[in-house]
Write a sequence for this structure.
């Protein structure tokens, strides 16, 4: 059978994530992955969550196993609220929704806003999962370049001025994926001024905000927002467990209401057991102490990666900015135009990195950049992985 | 702030499910609900799942808490495959995907197929969750009336003939929601013939197929499909737990691949813990024995509901067909045109039912029908609920 006639336009040209394709090749256990976005699993509170899950299912089987409400289990909503309030990111006109991972929050926010052909401003480069979500609504991505202190505000204004039809800006302002950069407080204020001036919304995606290991905290866009323009998407994936798929959306009520309706026809509600487990975990344990342990570990891992890069990378051939938090480090190789052959040679040498083209608006344009992840591998594997990568770079740059 | 300008067309006129609104009014514990679609919670294997969850998190914390793959945990895919194979519903050209509840499978199948303005044939009436999912892709719903033995094949052919642009038929052939009817084997064969003749796909939604308590099994459409036209959506919600949100899609590879990409940007993957729990449950226990207990209970509950209806409903004023399985019973009141006042009076009398308009293509047209659910309430509450309903019907018909 030929299925082309049945495909919606939105999926006709859609390609799977090259990262995912790479993961398939990475079944080889000898490959050291610096490619993924996995949080460190060595600190997962398996024993604590084991006891909690056992108890929740024994004492509240109906609550854990029966249908729940689309907006989320009320106590879970309170947990999400407490996380958002810690960074002053719930306004009085906001509603909170529990979503099955922050990605769902971004996908459904886009679905509530974007018609076919609508333009959405995104950082260039940005997180492929979000970009691909926007592509499924046949939106046009308008990339604005990212600088060491976040999105270029000059370019943003130019873009907004040129096109009054733009409805929304998508940003990961803190420890951005893939660049690891953080938008300065001044730029955040400026972005809100521009959003007001040109009447656009902002989707603030903040999965890494809790993972700062150096420097000073910067206020969230949502906390600076006096006009209810920001849809704030938070996540438990990097502070508790990604496999549990728990995220939340804080949005002005009229928008939250639409996202809730879209969620109802998407997956009805987020699984109950994982919500109940998160509630119990936050009641019984100090989640901030757990996050602090992760932060410390990520600081060490990042330092080890940078130290190894300085040791093994060919001198002067690779540029990077050391991140102050999060899980990613972004590299540029100014002497070449396309990193793809390097990435392929790396796989032969049993180390995986992600080429920059994956995060680009135009995924077919060559890129001389690549993304490294330091949260997932152990300290030893990090050094060994960077050593292998350094050998390839020395050979090919 | 005024948000109308930011809303996508798809959500502008979208209304929340009236059933959900009713649920909010139903916080009153004195109300007996015959309105929902909840499976019986009295049989939930809470103790078994408690032990399983505790053990899985203790022995495999990384697997349970780290990111998983979009298509599903491999052993969970095998579990889904075994359920589908039991009804001969996996072909050699098919792929299996695990989804976060069957609703996600339907939503993303529609997203892969439907462009704005595309027409999709649905049973009239049909499940509001699916109809609303199709509406979010701005598809046009073409209703085909449902008869005691399933969708009218004459009307289906008329519709397909009239519009060569139709791409897909959505059907719940077994114990349909809301009517409880089952499509005959003859009609299933005819539907496949028509699908072939007019070159359309079929989405077969089969959440209730395991819940037969009388009559003879009818083969699934998927099992009769020799041309790989059927996308089969299965669920663990009615045979294990809806709160776990586990469903699966069996689809020809080219379509499954697109659905998988859409799932990746929707919620990345289905939570790992619930997948692992389902795998262990099916390994350690006989899920068919568990389903058999449910079937027996639902047969008893249905019989109790019908017996109570015969006792308390005004004679000759309400028509219904006794279902052979599933969880719903559909009633028509030929002497009135609009059931809405009855539904409201019922809430005053502390019993909840769902008006037929909720399941209609045109939700604003009045309906003289209503849906009853017999799986959720206890036998005592079922009789008391029908007694209260009977009093209202006697008063108002």
């Amino acid at each position: 059978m030929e299925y082309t006639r049945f495909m919606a336009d939105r999926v006709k040209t859609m390609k799977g994530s090259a990262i995912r394709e790479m993961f398939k090749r990475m079944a080889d256990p000898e490959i050291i992955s610096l490619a993924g976005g996995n949080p460190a699993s060595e600190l997962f509170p398996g024993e604590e969550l084991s006891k909690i899950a056992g108890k929740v299912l024994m004492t509240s089987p109906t609550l854990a196993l029966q249908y729940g409400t689309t907006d989320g289990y009320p106590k879970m909503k309170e947990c999400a609220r407490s996380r958002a309030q810690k960074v002053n990111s719930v306004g009085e006109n906001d509603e909170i929704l529990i979503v099955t991972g922050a990605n769902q929050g971004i996908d459904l926010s886009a679905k509530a806003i974007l018609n076919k052909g609508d333009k959405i401003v995104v950082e260039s480069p940005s997180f492929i999962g979000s970009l691909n979500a926007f592509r499924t609504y046949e939106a046009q991505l308008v990339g604005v370049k990212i600088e060491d202190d976040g999105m270029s505000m000059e370019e943003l204004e130019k873009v907004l001025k040129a096109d009054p039809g733009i409805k929304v800006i998508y940003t990961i302002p803190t420890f951005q994926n893939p660049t690891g950069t953080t938008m300065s407080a001044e730029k955040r204020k400026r972005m809100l001024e521009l959003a007001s001036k040109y009447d656009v919304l902002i989707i603030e995606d903040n999965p890494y905000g809790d993972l700062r290991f150096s420097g000073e905290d910067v206020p969230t866009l949502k906390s600076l927002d006096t006009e209810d323009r920001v849809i704030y998407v938070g996540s438990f994936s990097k502070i508790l467990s990604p496999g549990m798929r728990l995220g939340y959306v804080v949005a002005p009520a009229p928008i939250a209401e639409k996202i809730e309706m879209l969620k109802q026809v998407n997956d009805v509600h987020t699984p109950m057991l994982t919500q109940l487990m998160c509630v119990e975990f936050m009641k019984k344990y100090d989640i901030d102490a757990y996050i602090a342990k992760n932060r410390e570990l990520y600081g060490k891992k990042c330092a080890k990666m940078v130290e190894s890069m300085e040791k093994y990378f060919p001198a002067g051939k690779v540029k990077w900015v050391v991140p102050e938090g999060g899980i990613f480090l972004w590299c540029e190789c100014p002497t070449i135009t396309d990193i793809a052959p390097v990435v392929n040679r790396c796989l032969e040498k049993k180390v995986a990195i992600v080429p920059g083209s994956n995060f680009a608006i135009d995924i077919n344009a060559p890129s001389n950049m690549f993304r490294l992840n330091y949260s997932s591998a152990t300290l030893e594997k990090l050094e060994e992985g960077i050593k292998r990568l350094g050998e390839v770079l020395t050979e090919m740059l």
